[in-house]
Amino acid sequence: MLDKTPSTKVTEFLDKFGSALEAGDIEAAVNCFQADCYWRDLVTFTWNLKTMEGQDQIREMLKATLAKTKPTGWKIAEGEEAAEDGGVTTAWIEFETEIARGFGMIRLKDGLIWTLLTTMAEIKGHEEKAGFTRPLGAKHGHGRDRKTWREEREDEMAELGHSRQPYTLIIGGGQGGIALAARLRQLDVPTIVVERNERAGDSWRKRYKSLCLHDPVWYDHLPYIDFPKNWPVFAPKDKIGDWLEMYTKVMELNYWSATTAKKASYDEAAKEWTVVVERDGKEITLKPKQLVLATGMSGKANWPTIKGQDVFKGEQQHSSTHPGPDKYRGKKVVVIGSNNSAHDICAALWEGGADVTMVQRSSTHIVRSDTLMDIGLSALYSEQAVESGMTTRKADLIFASLPYRILHEFQIPLYDQMRERDKDFYAALEKAGFMLDWGEDNSGLFMKYLRRGSGYYIDVGACDLVIDGSIKLKSGVDVQELTKDGVLLKDGTLLPADLVIYATGYGSMNGWAADLISREVADKVGKCWGLGSDTIKDPGPWEGEQRNMWKPTQQEALWFHGGNLHQSRHYSQYLALQLKARMEGIDTPVYGLQEVHHRG
Amino acid sequence: MLDKTPSTKVTEFLDKFGSALEAGDIEAAVNCFQADCYWRDLVTFTWNLKTMEGQDQIREMLKATLAKTKPTGWKIAEGEEAAEDGGVTTAWIEFETEIARGFGMIRLKDGLIWTLLTTMAEIKGHEEKAGFTRPLGAKHGHGRDRKTWREEREDEMAELGHSRQPYTLIIGGGQGGIALAARLRQLDVPTIVVERNERAGDSWRKRYKSLCLHDPVWYDHLPYIDFPKNWPVFAPKDKIGDWLEMYTKVMELNYWSATTAKKASYDEAAKEWTVVVERDGKEITLKPKQLVLATGMSGKANWPTIKGQDVFKGEQQHSSTHPGPDKYRGKKVVVIGSNNSAHDICAALWEGGADVTMVQRSSTHIVRSDTLMDIGLSALYSEQAVESGMTTRKADLIFASLPYRILHEFQIPLYDQMRERDKDFYAALEKAGFMLDWGEDNSGLFMKYLRRGSGYYIDVGACDLVIDGSIKLKSGVDVQELTKDGVLLKDGTLLPADLVIYATGYGSMNGWAADLISREVADKVGKCWGLGSDTIKDPGPWEGEQRNMWKPTQQEALWFHGGNLHQSRHYSQYLALQLKARMEGIDTPVYGLQEVHHRG
């Protein structure tokens, strides 16, 4: 008897799984799963971003959602084949629900599902117009007094927010707000983005001058228009600023720059927000149905309270407002903090001729950027990956298919390799006194990022300066107080300073909600970001997904968007579809709305 | 005995051909060709764009160039296979010369070459940095006082054209100048583009308001950044303007808008141009080594001399300066001409409520835009083509591989199909009195474009207005004179007019050279465009390539760039390489420099 190919096995399995679902036979469907199993659903079943872990959670989810979802047509995705490796059979899959088309990935072990990822690709009848369905453009035929494209755009820009209201208002015009707005436009959801800076891209331009992206280009593409093949691996901030600026233009976004959101409140009866923004010195009231905060996954600046801050004669800044080294040549600068911003800023200050000391109060996870790119990302996001057929979409989905609960297990071996490869580097750092860590479970940078959004530095050169003492280091010591002349540490050291920079991180994004809406609403939605891993700065209980990000929150019609360029790109798709569905009056019963365990 | 596969046959053939070339055995190489054969070389052998027709011309070319070119390594291009169809075996090929890497296409009939296309892909040691060799971007490591990307760009913009001179100056910042400048930057050739309009893209924005591209999007991509998948098929002029504007920014072009070139002269001894431009009211003298006129393949406006033009009381415009219909509602407008601009303008005027008459003095070739897209372009430039694996590069090369001498033979059957598909449409046009043609040999639109750049209209709706009389038509009649009130035709008809528009075409591009440089230089280089086909407006003798376009001219260091978006994109590659080679001091002996038979 001939062995079945992986594709045949998967096809037969999907037929069985699909039949059980169509028959409403939940037990049979659950029995298609391993005992140790994960089903991550992005919108299709749950109208949420939700990971079900184990058969019990899957059973509960299906009981609540199966009858309404009506999934059918499970098959290996067109043009794909299943593959078998190390006992795991993997395949890209397609399926449909009553209202959507789905795409995902399945991993089988011993003929049962280990991991299943189901994502919403598009809503039937509301597909984006691209490729074969791209708009015609030229108005063929003729019509007296019909408007040109430019006139239509001008009308839109004159009306939207004035004589007619946007369905969605996005506050924050960085890469997150921009990516989401682009998706929403392609779905014909009238949207305005408000950005307080003068120009799109300023959120990058205004940062310290040596800033470049720390993530490599293949990881960073925006939706619809990739960076070209000659774009640098790590783009300088001004190049990114220019790209974002042109992107808002050619993707036809309704982008209100130099506009600040002042106040927002939700009318539960009218199901509508009232948002007051200030633009060109005038207050304008907008009434969107949906409000998205895309103000950056870093919330408000954490400005620590330290005795003597009112006594200190020099300047004090947070890393987010530090303008760069130009005015500090020959000056003494003390930087409190030892993570990403601290390193970038210390290096830039040294380059600009300042006398700089870094105060490290707790350990930092360091990884060299080329090592991270090679070992951490290259399988999915690299020139080699592209050359062997990887697409950004697939890379994003492969990443999304790894359950958060076990993601650290995949990461640990990679970081073991990195530790080995760069051991001399780490030895030199420790010799200089630097306190290193690898994350509590040695799972490294990306888990730290997902859990707490901080606590690491991707080294692009500052470490050499720490190693050789060009950047002076005081480590393992906390600040006692500021004196009028400098920083007094708890070990008695006095660091004279003209400038003290608090590279001390940010609060949770819901801090912006407190300012803009109310403390009550901010508390109602709770802390953003983090997985509930019970590690430093990510207290339990386990959430299984990023708190509040890209999905329904406890405040109706309030959403949070953000993250790095990869997340801004990928998760904007699902957030845009959730908003589109609501606009079209499609029923969106949310399963497992995230409960709030922390106020932020 | 097993039949050899097409790939095996081609590989064996290439081994034989390559060996003959390497041995310097010209006769053996020539004998690899059919009697009826064509070898089109883009730069690699000839440092020219040249088609050799027949064995004798090939022999002569090899005698002159083979020893220096040193071609080797002929093989089927990596990842490709040969294909056999209808007695013709076709394959993508790669080869090397002493200084370059080549790419091309071969077509064999009965084991001998029918057509050979050889193109220069890159110069060894001067490859563009992209993909695996894309720049790093972030300056890793550290260096005191080193400059950021933005500072380097600012320095470049402050210096280039002032304290240091560009190698290449491009006059004309439309899609041609922009595409060429982008290629040159990727090859590190310091280049300035001067554009008289205020903003990049204005050459489109300022056109009549209903203007859209008549070529579909897949045909129109610029180098390096494709239009996205949701870009319209026929882009409205303002969208194109915006794209060009952002492209100049993100591709880091040194683009001097609001800058007019006043005078240029070549110093034969210093091998350098002196070009005076006016920018912000100041005259600046530039000294590039190479000068490119990218002012548009349409040269200066043809403004016919007609008796009574000084008597006519109303307005007179050329199509190129017509602002659109807004001021002419209710007015009488007479448009002299019946080709592309005339139809677009008449339709826009009708839509704007004007009373418009088209005066057709000679026949016009008409094809409907969707028919042209379907039958004329879809094999190479369409969503279907993309889906079946066609790339823009391959489409461009396939098109380039069809010898101009026989191109019409490929075109005639396509236009027969178009004539049949739209026969009712054509009957209705003729019933309205419109004079139709199909090109002298029925080879249709693209041949007309290549031969004379005029004489056709791609219908996007104006024809229906001619058919139903909304656009009034006087055909088969010429203009006698203008009276003070209107246009008197030779058949005695008087057409009252408030505005007369001369949609009467353009002169040859070397008319710009006459204005900018001198009549002598303009005559020295002669007429641009056309193949020498001995058809209307394309007098012989046969050139075999576009006169003066994208290749060396009789004036050292003077070049012409332009054409439609496809040509701007594709031929900018070869022009950029020819300029790069000269900058690097590589020997570029031009074979078969085009002689001048017509002054323009």
Count the E strands of chain A. Answer: 26
Total helical segments of chain A: 19
Content of β-strand of chain A: 15-25%
Q: Mean of residue pLDDT of chain A?
A: 95
N-end to C-end Cα span of chain A: 60 Å
In helices, the fraction of residues of chain A equals 25-40%
The assembly state of the depicted protein chains is homodimer
**Biggest interface, residues from each chain:** A-B, 67 and 67 residues
Estimated structural class of chain A: alpha/beta
Rg over C-alpha atoms of chain A, rounded to the nearest angstrom: 25 Å
The biggest beta sheet of chain A reads:
7 strands, mixed
Q: Poorly predicted ranges of chain A (pLDDT <50, ≥5 residues)?
A: none
Q: What is the overall silhouette of chain A?
A: globular
Descriptive account of the structure:
- 2 copies of one chain form a homodimer.
- Chain A has 600 residues and is of the alpha/beta class.
- The first copy, chain A, is 32% helix and 23% strand.
- Chain A has 19 helices and 26 strands.
- In chain A, strands 1, 2, 3, 4, 5, 6 and 7 form a 7-stranded mixed beta sheet that branches.
- In chain A, a hairpin with a 3-residue loop joins strand 22 and strand 23 (486-489).
- The longest helix of chain A has 19 residues, at 565-583.
- At the A-B interface, helix 4, helix 8, helix 9, helix 11 and helix 16 of A face helix 4, helix 8, helix 9, helix 11 and helix 16 of B.
